[in-house]
Design a protein that fits this description.
This protein has about 300 residues and is an all-alpha fold. It is built from 13 helices and no strands. The protein is globular and about 55 Å long. The model has no long low-confidence stretch (mean pLDDT about 85).
Amino acid sequence: MASKAKTILKISIPLILGIVLGWYSLSQISIPQLIQYFKKANYTWIGLGVFLGILSHLSRAYRWKFMIEPMGYKLKFPNSFMAVMAAYLVNYTIPRAGEISRATIVANYDNIPFEKGFGTIVAERMADMVVMLGIILIALVLEFEYIYHFFADKFNAFKIFIGVLAIIVLSIAFMLFIKRSHSKIASRIRKFVNGLIEGITSIFKMKQKWAFIFHTLFIWFMYVMMFYVTSFALDETANIPFATILIGFIAASFSIAATNGGVGSYPEAIVLAFLLFNLPEDPSRAFGWIIWTSQTAMIIVLGSLSFLF
């Protein structure tokens, strides 16, 4: 019974949060005003953004082959691509269910055992996590001065120093506790971290590790460029510095995990990120809806066709 309730909560909370955030976002900008932004948008840039998004998905599908084939199985590229697109579409209904459907599809069509296919997907996510952390680090370096002054204006230097020192001390204490503790939670965290390290190091044991690394970097480069070129669709967002775009991209990326496919949360995450740099709300919100709508439309079309085929 508790397990059933937990499952219901996992499904319902992101859905409810998405609806609430979607309602809030649309309450902050009138529908006619939002429609005007859509009408005056330059669809050449939006189309280019969609194209770059498709390239990233094609690369993801091709990258998967590098992890499947060493196990002795043949993954057909069309099946891989359609499994990836179908998975993205499923994620709009039940959070994280896409990974399960992706492994199930290739199990049915290419006879790849589900557990092995799913294991490679988890390893992929670990590689993606490393790249995402790298993007965050680059964004912090590029905008270090602005971020430093932003917090310095709100807190004095001594408080910032104490805060950073406290975080470091607490982090070290937490790691020592996890390392020595015999509790179930500590055991699960150790297992997760060990799995993360094993998954990352396994990449360097592949025969085609450099091809895998290239595609991983290419996927995320396309993600960033998709976000960047779409910003040119509106005059109000066309001149945003690239470092600021990176901050918006990071916020938007995390929002996808908060709700199903970023429903409602994606535009608001961009607004919050751009507000840090004193950018106006309405164009930021409109840009968020434009990029989310265009990418979602692409996933719905290609994901539906993938299910059909």
